[in-house]
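User: Run a structure prediction on this.
Assistant: Running it now.
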Amino acid sequence: MTSWPFEVFEPAVASTLSRIARAELSNVRVVVANGAEGLAVLFGPGAIDELWMFFPDPWHKARHHKRRLVGPAFADLVADRLAPGGVWRLATDWADYALWMRQVLDPHPLLQNPAAGWAPRWPERVATKYERRGLHAGRPIYDLTYRRL
């Protein structure tokens, strides 16, 4: 299995490449691009078995909600790129973004929430600095899992 992390913040790209080199990994490809654009261009329909989206920018202010990555158009793109039975894993520490995700994804005709609510924390999910910051600030972590029908 090959991993394809998408990142637009250049210092994060450098950090990721350094960590890949230290771990001597050969199955990771870093894409310096917006995730939605990369997903649309680099992968065809049904090409992805699993998509992870942990702690995306919540864009707190109401006037910026249109910039949130999880929205109807992105949900349609993900559903198209996931293979039947493919899994989309999400996590956030912002309650309003977690509820936003549920409002967008729960009614999607091609996605099913097998937990019928919040998913248990996926044991293989590595704790990110954003997760640690959220926990330090006293915010709960919301995990979601959707399966492509």
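The two ends are 22 Å apart (CA to CA).
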